[in-house]
Write a structure and sequence with these properties.
Length: 209
């Protein structure tokens, strides 16, 4: 059985003290979903703030003007991470490649449609299309692969979106408790820049409202 997780690389949360965060996992990858603890959501928000250069020493320091100024100056919010695929039968995993970015997670729809797509490097996900079957490998062509059909990948991407949307719901709750004056704007910015709740067409992989 192949499963998918939306993961965030958490190295940027090291030494973060503006609000409580969770202890990092061994691989520094945090799965985003609607099942996260408040501290894990805090970790995800710490990464997003740190990675985008939004300075904050304490949650109480954040103001709407502060956030709006940064959003106006930045072209988009970005975050290290992406989709991690794991075959529970063979124990083969394909984590996101470096420099791909959580903001690019929808590019996997191109793969589901049979198109080529750059998915990062070091480690580099390798995609091979064999008819309607997709072989996912890490690093090189000799590595063990995860094999799924295009239809199965489409279903996994729908699951990934559901996980991401669940995280967004928790992020709204977290913001309401941690930065109540910014909860709506912050949640809206996450949804907009990470393209979480738009609906992707299974025909062409593009997002539409």
């Amino acid at each position: 059985m192949v499963i998918v997780e939306v993961v965030l690389e958490t190295s940027d949360a090291v030494d973060f003290t503006a609000w409580p965060i969770a202890e990092p996992s061994r691989d520094r990858l945090l799965a985003l979903s609607g099942q996260m603890s408040p501290a894990e959501v805090g970790t995800a928000m710490a990464v997003i703030f740190s990675y985008n250069g939004i300075p904050v020493t304490h949650a109480a320091d954040l103001t709407e003007a502060h956030l709006e100024q940064h959003l106006a100056e930045a072209e988009c919010l970005i975050a290290p991470g992406g989709l991690r695929f794991h075959d529970t039968t063979t124990d083969v995993s394909v984590p996101p490649g470096c420099c791909f970015g959580l903001e690019n997670w929808r590019d996997w729809w191109d793969v589901a449609c049979g198109r080529e797509s750059w998915l990062g490097h070091d480690p580099t996900p390798h995609i091979t299309h064999v008819g309607h079957t997709i072989q996912l490998r890490q690093h090189n062509e000799d590595a063990p692969s995860i094999e799924i059909t295009r239809g199965e990948l489409s279903s996994l991407l729908t699951t990934a979106q559901r996980h991401f949307s669940g995280f967004l719901d928790l992020a709204r709750q977290w913001a309401a408790a941690t930065t109540p004056g910014l909860a709506d704007r912050l949640t809206s910015a996450l949804d907009q820049h990470f393209i979480i709740n738009e609906v992707s067409s299974s025909l062409d992989g593009r997002a539409t409202r």
